[in-house]
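Listing S7. Sequence submitted for prediction.
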Amino acid sequence: TYGTGCFILMNPKDKIITLVPGSRMSEVKRLLPLMRDAVDMLCRNGYMGYQFIIPTVETTLDYVKKQVENWPFKPELVPATRRYDVYAKSYMAIVASGTVSAELAMLHVPTIVVYKMNPITAWLVRQIIRVNWVSLVNILLNRGVYPECLGGDANAETVLDAVQQLTIPSKRKKMIDALKSA
């Protein structure tokens, strides 16, 4: 269903930005449009030499395939079983908040964490829980290593800004060093 058993770089000189909209359908439905808008904005702002790859689980594959058909810049879909191969080759990642951020941290991949939820649920959570971060990595390190684009700030503009920051060599190195020291 993916075309090949493993992914092949379309252009080996391209830098990979891995997109992980989540593993549950509800997450994917909320975050995939954000990622589409972010990819479109990135490509319109000079990030043409990047390859976008989405590791997908079987339960969301058909939905993701159908959605990306209309993207102006086609991401490559790979099975989630090949995700570590993709992560190891990634220049950076844009991911849903969850376990994936810890997996990427172990591989020292600069990552941007995004998350959206129902506005009423978000309001209720803010009333009950006071946290500085939602990313597992930031919580465990007790500091904001991964940028988090959450709720209303989870939009293409903030993601573009975070990507631009991670292309600055000194900022990229600072994040990678923080991940290595954890």
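Caption to Listing S7: primary sequence and predicted structure tokens for the chain studied. The chain has a mean pLDDT of 86. Residues 6 and 170 are 33 Å apart (CA to CA).
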